[in-house]
Amino acid sequence: MSGVSSILVDELYNALRSTATSGVESDGELIAKLDTVAGRTAAASDDADPSTLLEEDAKQNKRPLDDDEESISDVSDSEIEGYLLTPEESEAKSAIWHQWNKPYLMEWAIRDEQRKAKKRAEDEAKRNGTYKPRKRPVHSTAMGPADSALEATQMALSKKARSLSNRVNMSALEELFKT
């Protein structure tokens, strides 16, 4: 067992043991079973210190305590298999994921179908000769440069905000720039 998993097992053991001791007297059997499964006595588990556990694990595995590098040969095949999902677990996980993301997947499918339909319509229009590509907007350079500040303002109003140009009193604007 690796150092980290050994510590986790010890922490789990201590947590289960403390839960069992806080219960009723009949839980003594549970404590005895935990002790036999963990292979230790009750006195040894009560005095367990995490730093001591790390040192003991380092001695058992014959490696220095500060060894951060792990090689793949340190990991057993059974431990690796514990991380891999079985086909049934994989299918269950996939079903849960699809159920959880169902609204997004439906929206995505609708958008995808709309995109494909638009593409088919464009292709059909190209074959029939009725396809008209989108026209690009006319830029202010196509109108030519403005000769005065009044003309530039009028061009900007007509180009940027048509609804705004309807609200502007153009005669008052002309009076503003006449001076």
Could you please describe the fold and organization of this structure?
There is one protein chain. The protein is mainly α and 179 residues long. The chain has 3 domains: 3-84, no CATH class; 88-128; 144-178, no CATH class. The chain has helices at 3-21, 28-38, 42-46, 50-60, 77-83, 87-100, 102-128, 140-143, 149-160, 162-167, 170-178. Residues 73-178 form the Brf1 TBP-binding domain. Residues 56-65, 115-127 have a biased composition (Basic and acidic residues).
Q: Short summary of the structure?
A:
The chain has helices at residues 3-21, 28-38, 42-46, 50-60, 77-83, 87-100, 102-128, 140-143, 149-160, 162-167, 170-178.
Essential attributes:
179 residues; mainly alpha; 3 domains; 11 helices; BRF1_TBP-bd_dom; Brf1 TBP-binding domain-containing protein
Give a topology summary:
Layout: H1 3-21, H2 28-38, H3 42-46, H4 50-60, H5 77-83, H6 87-100, H7 102-128, H8 140-143, H9 149-160, H10 162-167, H11 170-178
Helix pairs in contact: 1-2
| Broad structural category | mainly alpha
**How many domains, as an integer?**
3
Which ranges are low-confidence, i.e. pLDDT below 50, for 5 or more consecutive residues?
41-46
Task: Name the shape in a single word.
Answer: elongated
Strand content: under 5%
Number of strands: 0
Supply the number of helical segments: 11
Overall mean pLDDT stands at 71
* Rg, nearest Å: 38 Å
Biggest pleated-sheet summary: none
Q: Helical amount among residues, as a percent range?
A: 55-70%
Order of helices and strands: HHHHHHHHHHH
Distance from N terminus to C terminus (CA atoms, Å) equals 91 Å
